[in-house]
Amino acid sequence: MSIFEHHGFQRTRRLGKNHRVTALVIQDILGGEIMKTETPDGWHYYNFINGVRRDFPESPFAEKLNYQNILSDRDEAFSDTNEEQYGTF
Fold it and tell me: Which residues pair with 39 in a beta bridge?
């Protein structure tokens, strides 16, 4: 059973498209820090939990990411989403 199924989420393509929301929800459940990496399409958000990078969405990128591991926070990750998207998860 995946962490998503354990907490009542279904793993869908939606997770990859809403990586900011995913990073926020994962932090709610598992704690840790929200990190970001710059990509050609803008910032990509993911989590660091117990010192391990966790990028839960299936990567929407054609090429492997060069993770920069820049510390972010909830406010920044939430800046390009809304309560409705967040509440969906």
Answer: 42
Asked if 5 contacts 43 with a C-beta cutoff of 8 angstroms, the reply is no
Cβ pair 31, 74 in contact under 8 A: no
pTM: 0.73
CB environment 36-65: b (16+ within 10 A), e (fewer) = bbeeeeebbbbbbeeeeeebbbeeeeeeee
Map out the domains of the chain as residue ranges.
3-88
Nearest residue to 31 via CA among 13, 48, 8: 48
DSSP state of 47: E
Single-letter code of the amino acid located at 3: I
Q: Which amino acid is at 38?
A: E
* 34-57: pLDDT as tens digits: 999 998 878 899 999 999 999 876
Dihedral sign from CA coordinates of 30, 87, 57, 4: positive
